[in-house]
Amino acid sequence: MTEEQNKTTVLRKTQPEPLLEVRNITKRFPGVLALDDVSLKFMQGEVHAVVGENGAGKSTLMKIMAGAYIADSGEILLQGKKVSFSHPQEAHEQGVSIIYQEFNLLPERTVAQNIYLGREPSKFGVIDIRALNKKALTVLKELGADEMISPTALCNTLSVAEQQIVEIAKAISFDSKVLIMDEPTAALTLVEVRILNALVSRLKTRGMALIFISHRLVEVFDIADKITVLKDGQLVGTELAKDVNAEKIVHMMVGRILDHYFPPLGKKEDFGEVVLRVNNCSNHFLKNINLELRKGEVLGIAGLQGSGRTELAQALFGVMPFKTGTMEINGKTRTVKAPSTAIKYSMGFMTEDRKAEGLLPKQPIRDNMLLTVRSMQSILGNIFNDGIRKSRKMVPTLAKQVDVRTDNYDREVQFLSGGNQQKVALSKWLASNADIFIFDEPTRGIDVEAKASIHDLIRGLTKKGIAVLMISSELPEIIGMSDRILVMWDGSIAGELPAKSTESDVMLLATGHETNNHSNKNDEAGKE
After folding, report:
1. Average pLDDT over every residue of 335-356
2. What backbone torsions phi and psi does residue 84 show, to the nearest 5 degrees?
3. Of 49, 235, 316, 408, which sits 20 to 30 A from 222 (CA to CA)?
4. Is the model's pLDDT at 8 over the cut of 80?
């Protein structure tokens, strides 16, 4: 053996072996090359983030590693040994677990029953409930969550963060070596994200390999040791998180430098008259809401989960109507008791959950784009064949307007990327010619380039004189997009902040504290 070969052998022995490795993974779907010869290593005691645009291949790769998909070619090595998973259960049993954004919990079962589903301890053929709860408690203690979550609690009584912990406990109960987390923070509050981050740190010390998928780059840099970027099914590169910044990762993701994260704010002199005014309005959750929305402005609504942000949007749109107080729309006092009434008054509402409330996933893109138009035709008693034909002609124009990327408008919307689905949800309201838009989490779960596209679309609407009320749990988005910011706390508006306020100002109001940089419209209304 030569001296050079000896050096190579020694180097291999001193380098740690990956806990999980994928080599030359390729996966095709009809008309799409989802993964193209991707090779990656995931190390013990390390958080490895995998990022990329929607459609980059992240979820496909995760599902192959977790046994939900089978690769067309390539191999998976677990602790140096070649493995093959034809079902997620096989991956579980060999120590690879995945937690999806939509949890796989049975809501009417207890925490213990969910953790050990199908593996319950038994005596004489009967499930031993005491032993089951004891085993579950042991796992929860390992995670430091035994004081937060009871093994006997029903899963439908838990918060989103607590359900996430139950999913992690389930993985730990399989003695998992690798834990894949697909968008784990998408529905969490800032406090809940901190709890999850602490839990991930605990899992690192156990020697697990943690694979973290997220569109939130701030959280990626908070938690990850390494960052891998995928684009169009190919590996762009892997970097140590400490050696790069967000701009570098964005450039790797989109293939270019984004000129801006947010378009320029509006100018006060360009804002028109008040098109929506709410005076002392309340319902079963909201209290004494006072606000004004002007033509051509973006009014941001901030606040923690449960503060009343979504409830405010639903009240304005008639989903959960106000019980007291008055609303003025375009200078006239109106009563909005149902969404059909709001649509009649030229309002549009893009909900935060596009899959459950905004789209019909198994229906064609074309039909989803025309949902609002057809509902308006029905409301106005004008739905007939000629109207349907005319509305169908709108589809290419709408698609171009929001830049929906598809080769066929008859394709089911569920097969689009998250960003394109969001654009379809937006297009159905653009078709309505509304002059007041409510956007609840308009960029949740979509990649940075799709976010920039949505932001540009929103600002483009305001330039046409449309008024936008935008809710977001991402503080940089609220600050970057809002001409004014209202902050909610405990069902009320805690105060108003000017454009370009700081995150600390927003958080002070969102947690019930005062800041010197705000005015409280509700207090002023009360004094009057």
Report:
1. 87
2. -140, 125
3. 235
4. no
